[in-house]
Amino acid sequence: MKLKRILSSFLAVVMAFGVVSLATVDEKGNIFGNTLTAEAATEKTATKMPDNAITFSSTYSDELEIIPAASKNGMYYYNNKVIYFYSVANNTFRKIYDYNDKGRNKDTVICVYADSEKGKFYIVWLDSSNRNKKYYYLDEFDVKSEKFVSTKDISSLVGSNNLSHPESIGVDSQNRYYLAVYDENQNKHVINLISADMKLLSSAVAGDAVYKFSGFDKTNGNFYFEGYTDWIYWGYSHDTQSLKCGNVKNNKISISDYYVDILYQQYYTPHYDNAIMLANGDLAWTSTLYGVVRVLDSAKFDIADKDSSLPLKLSVSRSGYETEDRFADSIGTRTVYNAATGDYLMYVNDNAIAELDSEGNKKSTFKTAYPVFAMYNYGDSVLVIEKDTDENFYVENLKWAYPTKITLSKTSATIKVGESLSLKATSDSALDISFTWSSNNNSVASVTKDGKVYGNKAGSATITVKSENGITAACKVTVQNKANNPDSGEVKLSGASSNNISANDYYTWSSVVKSNLTENSDKTLTRVESTSKGVLVEKYSANGKTLISKSTIKNELPIYGGYFSGKNNNYIVFGQNNKGEKDSAEIVRIVKYSKSWSRVSDCKIYGSNTFEPFEAGSLRMIELDGKLYVYTCHTMYADSNKLNHQANMLFTVDESTMKTTDSMYEVSNLQDGYVSHSFNQFIKTDGTYIYRVDHSESNNMIMSGQYLTVNGITLSRYNKNSSSTNVAVTIPLKFDIHSGNYTGASIGGFEVGSGNCLIAYTKDISSSCKSRNAYISVTDEYFNKTNNVALTNYKSGTKVSCRTPQLVKINENLFLVMWEEYNSSTNKVTTKAKTVDSSANTVASATLSVRLSDCQPVMCSDGTVKWYVSDNSSPKLYSINPYDLTKRHEHTYTSVVTKQPTCKATGVRTYTCTTCGAKKTETINKLAHSYKQYVTPATTSADGSITKKCTACGYSSSKSKIYKITSVSLSSTVFTYSGNNITPSVTVKNSKNNKLVKGKDYKVIYPTNSVNVGRYSVKIQFIGNYSGTVNKYFDIVPIITSLTNTSGGIKLSWNKVDGAYGYRLYYKTSSGGWKRFKDTTATSFTDSGVVPNKTETYTIRCLDKNGKTVSGFYSKGWSKKYTPVAPTISKLENTSSGIKLNWNKITGAYGYRLYYKPASGGWKRFKDTTATSFTDSGVVPNKTETYTIRCLDKNGNTISGFNSNGWSIKYVPVAPTISKLENTSSGIKLSWNKVTGVYGYRIYQKTSNGWKRIKDTTATSFTDSAVSANQTKTYTIRCIDKNGKTVSGFYSKGWSKKYTESTPSISKLENTSGGIKLSWNKVTGAYGYRLYRKTSSGWKRIKDTTATTYTDSAVKSGRTETYTIRCIDKNGKTVSGYNSKGWSKKYVYNPPKSIKLNKTSAYIGKKESVTLKYTLSAGSTSTVTWSSSNKNVATVSGGKVTAKGAGTATITATTANGKKAACKVTVINGTRQKLYVNSYRVRVCNFSVVVPDSCQVVYGDDCVTFVDKYNRNKYGSGTLMWVTYSGRYSTSKEYSLGYANRTKIVYQYPLGAEVGDVTDKTASQKYQNSKKDMDLAIKNTFRFE
């Protein structure tokens, strides 16, 4: 069974995607993620129930079903076969009915279902008093009347097989019963749907055992139950109990083949009553396997939709005793629906009940006195049953009431910048209320979710606390500056130069941190940096201005891993590659130094599945309680594909012994803290838990609803006292932008504070834009909720990209995040900074004039954040006051012009910083002169000039000359008519032959409508630096648009000219002059007076209706050489004679030459003809032929071209025609014409699905026998070749014929004892036949039959009878004609005087048969009937006798006149076996004998022994007989059974235990019977083979 997709719904909660809340608790009972800051004003109490009121200690052996009865101030419950009532008011309980009183052997309770809505218990029990048959009953107990209202026998619904049994019972709102049974007959688990009156409505196979029904949805017919599932996890089978589902529609039950969730692993995490329908119709269940409770919107759940995710409302992770093997200390989901608020009340840990809204956000909690055992709706209250560790039970009737008043511990307070204040809220509610804290001025004072206030800058802010029901209280907080507010600054260190600028930024994967700065206990600073010469250690004064000491520590292994400054010691990690993959090779060494850098000791780590340490990642360390945690990565030993995969790695080292106490380096999955690939590693602690962050790059791999690997940020947590693989895991962000190693993201910082985990990172804007934005991810420390906050919001297309950020913890509620932004268009790097609270709300922001490096900034005791940056020079030490970012910021200016520049003097621009008000100025260059032009224009006859003069100062520039216009021309003066407006281009040049610019120097004015033929003028008007006008002229003449060789001569075509009446055509004579030869009003003319291969030249002009020319003409004309056109093959068609070619007639051509294209080479001539068609008979079926054609003169010379591509056709013989369809006695006969050249034919019949092939034949006819009377059949036919491939088309409509049966013929008439027997031929398609006998009045119908024989018994000996026959259909209607003359026969009958059988007795085994044959007296005929005197022994049919059971039966054969013969048949209770006898390994005899069931066969050296089973098994002897090749024993008894291969058959009575020695009379009788059976068998059934 498969898992119904639960993933996308619940992982969003469990794994903290997005912002969905998840309520969980810690080991002390606190709600995870929301530390309670309200105290209850009243105390809570629980009432201890009387001893033995409830007995429940084992999930497998105890049962407890509860129905709350608030109206009776108590509850009814079924507990271990007893129904009780418990009074909440009086704390007493009483027994109502005890199923144990009837005795264990009489009644056994099978299953119980409690229906709180109906107030009834449904109990299935077994009446065990009858040992031969099991009777099952269903009791219905009503709690209101405290009586059994019915007891129903459900045995028939369980099944007839005694091994069948009920498993579970349930009842829905329509009072339909759901009875789960194991059906032994089917060997299946089945759920039967049964009506209220106990009628089976439907059944469905459940697949596996059904343990308990959980609920029924009245809105959509869904139902839920607990059942068995073989859960396959990591390739192994696990016996589990799962939540399954089904549906009922229209009383039809169905069961999904998907399970909803795994509830628990049997024998490991069992839990009783795991799922329930809540009051609002939701389904809630608990999974002890996953430690969660889930709530499903059942109304929206379609069990048939196997692709969509479950519509979950909640998925709440439970921590505490459910993960400590205390699963049986509770029952049910401990979840109820609070109808008054629409929220869910849910147990979340031993002593805590939480109220959760529909998104899983905690609204309030209630602290119970003891761990919660069970919870139920109880009127307007909640009935809580609790259980202590001494097996005592308690009851609380819980009223869920919100506060009406909240009180704060302070209403006003004053703190300094950087200091904090804790506010405490109390309420008048018995509930522990979840409050929301807020500040109206976060930049002045921020507040954590537990009410702790931090001062950020001088000013005042109001801190407000608010309950879920809107009750508030406030405290005014005043923040003052400290006396010594530290300044930001920059110091150039005097130590060694290096290059670490921007080294914290990475693109794909990170590297180890090589630059480190730490503050010592005496406030001095230590710089530790990995160099090529070793590890550089420099000590500076607190302000960095003085270098106190300097040293270099030798690398103990080739690879530097990292540095950590512990409380009492310093640590450096070195590593080396293990390319040989040896477990004995040292791969990591953690060296411990004193604070003065004296080497103390080390921890050597070997093998550890490491190929390369620290590869493609980083290394970071923390210490806690004397342990050093080293978190890094490695490439691992090669896998089966010889790949060294990369993953995270952790070592925990005891700082006192420098020995590892824990490690993680083997391949596992995300749920065990294993991350593959891990491209950056971070580790932090809050004193109790260890938190790890990884930059994970892998495929999103899921198994059973859990991520095994992921592409994103992974955040894990484990208790300091636990294993590093016993982790809780969440995924604050999935990248899912790119595939492969490049994830498009980087992680720069991780801190834990105020109950939250903050991760600073960058991410690509999109898959197509690799510029990055900066973010902070905030996840509560118990992984309930994640919120990803954008620090920047650049869009696709930006030139700015954020580099990997640095994150610094200032205090529990203030963090400094810094990142560089690179602008690719300016090549400039800018550093941005923000301070944020623990929820990533912005406190302050600034642009800083600093740079970043891989040196992690540190918060120092002087109140500043320090780090250093080197750029191939001495390092710079930066100091930033996080409470006053403006003291070290990059100015952001606005500017204004304070002095305007002129062409004689410069100006001034003044800049002012918007942050601090600082000013600066810059000079504005003098303006250029503002000239005005004075122009004397040039003309076609004189030059002009230009003079420039400044309007501001009067300055004049030199005078420039404008050269006169010397040339104006049109692009052409003659244009052919096109029907479009013609505007010739104009070119104007000056005296320097330079072209003037149109639009600048001149403009052109064209005629308004220069379309038709005629003369037009163009006006050129000079402008700008030129003046004057010039007119130019052009003509439009008609145009011959095409000259085409046609079959009739040269065809001239021209455009129609608007306004022209007609046209005059001219041709050029041999003397060179134009000669008029045609006037026409058309737009084309064919000159037929042309000579082949001679060139003709033509021109044209327009005429008016009087025949006068109204246009010019094109003097050059248009020329064309006349060549007759190549003829066109207009049609190629397949005919029965071959391929027929048709072509157009070409005027003037004498004839035509046909060509075909052979397989190789060029065109081959094959026919000259004067016709316009020809049939090529030399073609091959299915071969494509290509043809072309050209013209001939009378001398056979070609005078035209030809189509070089030709025309092609595939020769397919034409479809044959069915010429005749006729009805015959054998069916419909088809006949068709023979098609020349084909091998055969394929016949098709039309069906509802199209044409169906029915026959291939080489004949020209076929009879379809698969026809029925009055049925119309449609056929078609096509040609095939010898390979069976079709080589022709077919007639798609086909030819049809209605089949009418032909007249049947009586083929034989014969005399029998029963009368005249008629036989006739079978007619295809006929359902049956109607027989007629001729009488004096005509034909008389005597019989309808579907057989082809009939015996007419109504005849008399010596009389002649005449018969005829016709066909009928299944309705008895005649469907054929008949032979009107008929067929005649004289009846003569000789009855037998005697009858004999070939056997008078026969002996056969119980599985054998024997065939008897009879013989009648000479010359007689008669029918013979057979009978058996005992059909339980043997039956007979047609003389064949078949054994049915041991005994004797007489088989009798009787003639029509009563003569009889009999055979006595004895059936022996045994089976015939083929046996043999060997003598000295030589086969001497093969035989067969019926071996009685009471005997077994044993082979000896020269015999076959038959041994009585009973006597042999009981007494060890008892040989019954021998069959041997010689009678060697004197007690042998021979039988005259004949000889075979000189072998004698001998029978011998027992030589073993004598019958008289057997005192057991039953055994003696059985032995006597078996001896009698064997005696009978050997005497009568022995046969030689």
User: What percentage of residues falls in helices of 4 or more residues?
Assistant: under 10%
Q: Biggest sheet, open or closed, and with what strands and sense?
A: 5 strands, mixed
Broad shape: flat
Which value, in Å, is the CA radius of gyration? 56 Å
Mean pLDDT value? 86
The low-pLDDT segments are 1-43, 1515-1522, 1524-1559
Count of DSSP H/I helices: 4
What does this structure look like?
It contains 4 helices and 131 strands. It is mainly beta and 1585 residues long. It is flat, with a radius of gyration of 56 Å. The two termini are 57 Å apart. The relative contact order is 0.04.
Per-chain topology:
Blueprint: E1 2-3, H1 7-14, E2 38-39, E3 47-48, E4 64-69, E5 74-79, E6 82-87, E7 92-98, E8 107-115, E9 120-127, E10 135-142, E11 147-153, H2 155-158, E12 165-171, E13 177-183, E14 188-194, E15 200-205, E16 210-216, E17 222-233, E18 236-249, E19 252-265, E20 275-277, E21 283-287, E22 292-296, E23 312-317, E24 335-338, E25 343-349, E26 352-356, E27 362-367, E28 372-378, E29 381-387, E30 393-398, E31 406-408, E32 412-416, E33 420-422, E34 425-427, E35 432-433, E36 436-439, E37 445-447, E38 452-455, E39 459-466, E40 472-480, E41 489-492, E42 498-499, E43 515-519, E44 525-531, E45 534-540, E46 547-553, E47 559-565, E48 570-575, E49 586-593, E50 599-606, E51 610-613, E52 620-624, E53 627-636, E54 646-654, E55 659-664, E56 678-685, E57 689-696, E58 701-703, E59 706-709, E60 712-719, E61 728-734, E62 745-753, E63 756-764, E64 772-780, E65 786-790, E66 800-802, E67 806-811, E68 814-823, E69 828-836, E70 842-848, E71 858-859, E72 865-869, E73 871-873, E74 876-880, E75 893-899, E76 907-913, E77 919-924, E78 931-936, ...
Parallel strand pairs: 1-19, 2-34, 32-40, 82-86, 116-123
Antiparallel strand pairs: 3-30, 4-5, 5-6, 6-7, 8-9, 9-10, 10-11, 12-13, 13-14, 14-15, 16-17, 17-18, 18-19, 20-21, 21-22, 22-23, 24-25, 25-26, 26-27, 27-35, 28-29, 29-30, 31-34, 33-38, 36-39, 37-38, 39-40, 41-74, 42-73, 43-44, 44-45, 45-46, 47-48, 48-49, 49-50, 51-53, 52-53, 53-54, 54-55, 56-57, ...
